[in-house]
Design goal:
225 residues; Osmotin/thaumatin-like_sf; seven-stranded antiparallel β-sheet; Thaumatin_CS; alpha+beta; 14 strands
Length: 225
């Protein structure tokens, strides 16, 4: 009996490891901007990326509510503490929490309903760096882009140094934040949607802004594609 129990446990462990390897996702984070960015990921931490550098990030299957973004104009000391002009995450090089607006976001949840990955680019927290978020394996051909000149064209009400804020962080009203789930587009969310039609512009903007790939797909996030 002990032999069969041991055999079962070994088989179960092998199956668990196999499924983990199959469904784990790699995110290749690249900086094509003509300036340095400090890439950030939750989960994942953070890394300085000079022009042309990349950061391969492995993400566990089942991860959800995850984000990747760029921080700009950062200064960190040897202990990894400092501050960024946009996208700052509590003054830490290795992010442990989401960044401060404005920041262009790549968002994802892996191996969810029917073992699908759900991916999107969001401008709900504003825009700081042009971005492309795409799948690179698994027969999935999703390419989401937000590359408009939003910082230069930003409405005066949303303009901040280094970026264009989202209306919710600025106005903090139900109309713009949609905390109760009852809201529609505003003139400010339309500003973002007109320039990046595949990106989230306000919280209820699901129909045209969220995309799926099979679980186990690998991805690429490019700043300034």
């Amino acid at each position: 009996m002990n032999y069969f129990i041991s055999l079962f446990n070994a088989s179960f462990l092998f199956l668990t490891l196999y499924l983990t390897l199959v469904n784990a996702a790699t995110f290749d984070i690249r900086n094509n901007c003509p300036y340095t960015v400090w890439a950030a990921a939750v989960p994942g931490g953070g890394r300085r990326l000079d022009r042309g550098q990349n950061w391969p990030l492995n993400v566990n299957p089942g991860t959800k509510a995850a984000r990747i973004w760029a921080r700009t104009n950062c200064q960190f000391d040897g202990a990894g503490r400092g501050r960024c002009q946009t996208g700052d995450c509590g003054g830490l090089l290795q992010c442990q929490a989401y960044g401060s607006p404005p920041n262009t976001l790549a968002e994802f949840a892996l191996n969810q309903f029917q073992n699908l990955d759900f991916i999107d680019i969001s401008n709900i927290d504003g825009f700081n760096v042009p971005m492309e978020f795409s799948s690179v394996s698994g027969g999935c051909n999703r390419v989401i882009r937000c590359t408009a000149d939003i910082v230069r064209q930003c409405p005066n009400e949303l303009r901040v140094p280094g970026g264009c804020n989202g209306p919710c962080p600025v106005f903090k009203t139900e109309e713009h934040c949609c905390n109760s789930g009852k809201c529609g587009p505003t003139k400010f969310s339309r500003f973002f949607k007109e320039r990046c039609p595949d990106a989230y512009s306000y919280p209820k903007d699901d129909a045209t802004s969220v995309f799926t790939c099979p679980g186990g797909t690998n991805y690429k996030v490019v700043f300034c594609p």
